[in-house]
Amino acid sequence: MELLTPSIGLVFWMSLAFLIVLFILRKFAWSGILKALKDREDFIERSLKSAEEAKAQMSTLKAENEELLAEARSERESILREAKEMRDKILADAKMSATEEGNRLISAARGEIEKEKNQALSDIKRQVGEISLEIAELVIRKELSDKGAQEALVAEHLSKAQIN
Amino acid sequence: MNQTKAMFLAVFVLVVTSGAAFASNKAENSAANNDFNPGDVIIHHVLDNHEIHIGNFHIPLPIILWDNSNGGLVGPFSSHHLADGANYKGYVMSHEKIYFAGTSNELVRDAEGHILAPKPLDFSITKSVVGVFVTAILLLVIFGAVAKGYKKREGQAPKGIQSAMEPLIVFVRDEIAKPSIGAKYERFLPFLLTVFFFIWIANLLGLIPFIGGFNVTGNIAVALVLALLTFIITAASGNKDYWMHILWTPGVPWWLKVPIPLMFIIEFIGFLSKPIVLMLRLFANITAGHIIILAFVSLIFIFNNLYGSAGGFGVSVVSVVFSIFMFCIELLVAFLQAYVFTLLSALYFGSAVEEHAHENH
Amino acid sequence: MELLTILLEGLAHMGAGIGAGIAVIGAGLGIGRIGGSALESMARQPEVSGDIRANMIVAAALVEGAAFFGIIVCLLIALG
Q1: End-to-end CA separation in angstroms for chain B
Q2: In angstroms, what separates the C-alpha of C38 from chain A's closest C-alpha?
Q3: By the 8 A CB rule, do B339 and C57 touch?
Q4: Of A5, B336, B284, A7, whose CA–CA distance to C71 is shortest?
Q5: Angle, alpha carbons B23-B33-B117 (nearest 5°)
Q6: What residues of B are in contact with residue A37 (Cβ under 8 Å)?
């Protein structure tokens, strides 16, 4: 029976002690502790969020970078291609102009040669004519000395001319 | 693994030696009437006391009385003045109860042996009051240090006792207060935290041998105060819906309310019985744990009386093993009861501040 | 007359003991059912085992409280 009867003294002291402890802890411990816990949790949450944001930013940055890189790469490629085309063109042009020049030179040379040849030929013809004239003069001089033969020849030609 | 072993060994040694201390303590009693009464010993331990016994040492405690017929406050004076039924300033103690006997040493009794002498109000610093004070001081010291730690290492990781207590504080906040009360949990958090740690530390204090065997939370007065505070806070913070639910329960047929307010009676009994059960649960759990441990220890002396010292020695092995087992269970119960008390308090607070949607009833 | 008193007192003690025993049986059955069901539901849905454990403890505490009511009444009979 005594076990179940609360004694007034203990009830009094317990109420007093517990209320004092509750008051002191509420004022000086719990408020600070709970606030500190909350602050820290908020801080962690904030940090996590900002980390997440930084990660997102990083990934966009990375994507941008990649894009830039790809652009640069394609540009480089196009530049290279252009350069190659240019080179090929220049080469082709050079080749063509060289060929043309060569052809021109060759044809010029050929013309010169022709001219020279013609000149030489005309020279030769003239000389041949002169020589032949001299020879012919000599021959004629000799032939004309023989009067009978001349008359025979004229006759012969005259006969031929009659035929024609 | 080694740590566990060492711990078990320590507990074993503690229990064995506490048994021995207990034996030496009881030896005089047994020698006096050569009859060991385990019931008396156990009840004597579980009940409050005006002295603290540590082995054979008796530490007297101050006695403070309030006697209207004697001009109000009497004392404080040391309890050793009243030892063995002595009369001091007209007061006599019998079975830890103090009576006013006047000049005579004998108390006036009726035919059946009930004491008729007037009883002043006893505000003495008893063993349990000392236990309450020790618990209160421990709470202040521990959480003073914890609060200081939070102030000193603001925004940093906890350290020392701070990191030991932080998970428990977070546990009370996140597992007990938040889900049970809801959005308004912050108002009740200081009370819940204080109650939780008070009960837990007081329970643990009751499990430490050699310091006089405190039974703080196993005393119905302590449990009564705690439950009463929960009751008062619940009633004080009850909103319109809460009282409406008790006075005029919505969603039940009218003939349960008029002419006989059946629902009101049922709800009101529930309203009152909640704190009573809260009190009984804590008190009975802790007291039962103490009684079981003491009963196992008492077995040694029962067998000692029955079959001589050989019997006592033989049983002591079994008794000690069971006592260790019970001590381990009690460690769990110490936490569990603190948890249950706090959780149920939080649930009552939650029901008091809950906003009902009446359409759904 | 004296014999009757002793006999009645003995009967009261016996009643208290039996009553306490019955209270404990009831509580044991109840808490056993709660524990069993809780374990079963935890096995089915391990992801909510935290909630289930908390509710299990609350339910067990309520059953226990009812049992303590009975035991305290028996204690009152035995000691009073």
Answers
A1: 55
A2: 32
A3: yes
A4: B284
A5: 105
A6: 150, 166, 169-170, 173
Reading the block at residue C71, the tokens are 């035991």
Q: What does the pLDDT average to over B145-173?
A: 83
Q: Report the alpha-carbon distance of residue B12 to residue A149 in Å, rounded.
A: 177
Q: Which residues of C touch B175 (CB under 8 A)?
A: 54
For residue B23, report the phi and psi dihedrals to the nearest 5 degrees: -60, -45
Q: Say what the ipTM of the complex is.
A: 0.83
Q: Regarding beta strands B121-122 and B57-60, do their DSSP bridges make them parallel or antiparallel, or are they unpaired?
A: unpaired
Phi-psi region of A49 (alpha: psi -120 to 50; beta: other; left: phi over 0): alpha
Residue A4 maps to a domain: no
How many structural domains comprise chain A? Answer: 1
Q: Is residue A139 part of a domain?
A: yes
Q: Which of B284, B339, B347 sits opposite C68 (nearest CB)?
A: B284
- Each residue's pLDDT tens digit, B52-81: 877 778 888 888 888 777 777 777 787 777
pTM (two decimals): 0.75
A158-162, B204-208, B246-250: range with highest mean pLDDT: B204-208
Q: Please, which residues have CB within 8 angstroms of residue B28's CB and are 6 or more apart in sequence? A: none
- Is residue B252 within 8 Å of residue B266, measured between CB atoms? no
Query: Which residues are within 8 A (CB) of B43 and not within 5 positions of it... i.e. 6 or more apart?
Result: A2, A3
Given a cut of 80, whether residue A130 has pLDDT beyond it is yes
- CA-nearest residue of chain B to A29? B147
AA letter at B244: M
Q: Is residue A41 part of a domain?
A: yes
Which of residues 19 through 78 in chain C touch A, CB cutoff 8 A? 72, 75-76
A1 occurs within a structural domain: no
Distance of CA A115 to the CA centre of its chain: 49
Domain that holds residue A153: 9-163
Nearest CA to B342 among B171, B128, B134, B163?
A: B171
